[in-house]
Amino acid sequence: MKDLSEIDVDFKTESELNTKKTPDFLISEKVNILGFEAKWIESKFMFGDFRTHSLYWRRQYYHYFKEFGKGIVVYWCWHLDIPFALGGEVDMSVHFKFGRLKREDFLKTLEKVLDDFERGRRIEVKGNIRLMNFLKGLGFDVKVQPRSHQSF
C-alpha cells in the first residue's frame, strides 16, 4: 500500500499542526480512498470493534467530523464493519430471548444480527447463552426479554 506522499496528496500531520484536537493526517483537498471522499485520516493500532469505535467517536472522531468533514479511521489490528453515525451514539441494543440455537445456525444468526445493526434496524434475536456472551463481547447491550414478552 502506498502512503499519502507517494500518491501526491497534500497533507499535514498532527505534529505539524501542533495541536491536540486534530487527526493524524489532515488532507488539504478531499481525496477518494476506496470510493469514499475523505478530508482526514486517523490511525489506531488496535482492533476496531463497535464499543471501541463508539468510545473514540465521542472522544475524537465526532470533533474531527464537525470541524473538517468526513474522514477515515484505519484500525491496524482488523475491524468489524462499523456504520457511520452522525449523532455520536451508535445504538447497540439487542433484544434477546433465550431459545434453542443449533450449532450450525450460530454463524447465520450472528450474521443476521450484524446485518440488522449495519442497516440500523431493531435487533431481535433468539439464542443461547453462548450467543448472548458473544454479542456482549462485541460491545452490544444485550437486553434479555422476560418470558412473558415472547413476541419473536
Task: Describe the secondary structure blueprint for this structure.
Layout: E1 11-13, H1 14-17, E2 25-33, E3 36-44, H2 50-68, E4 72-75, E5 93-98, H3 106-118, E6 123-127, H4 129-137, E7 141-144
Parallel strand pairs: 3-4, 5-6, 5-7
Antiparallel strand pairs: 1-2, 2-3
Notes on the protein architecture:
- By secondary structure, this protein is of the alpha/beta class.
- It has 2 domains: about 5-75, no CATH class; about 95-145, no CATH class.
- It contains 4 helices and 7 strands.
- The strands form 2 sheets. It has a 4-stranded mixed β-sheet with strand order 1-2-3-4. A 3-stranded parallel β-sheet has the order 6-5-7, with helices on one face.
- The radius of gyration is 19 Å and the shape is elongated.
- The model has no long low-confidence stretch (mean pLDDT about 80).
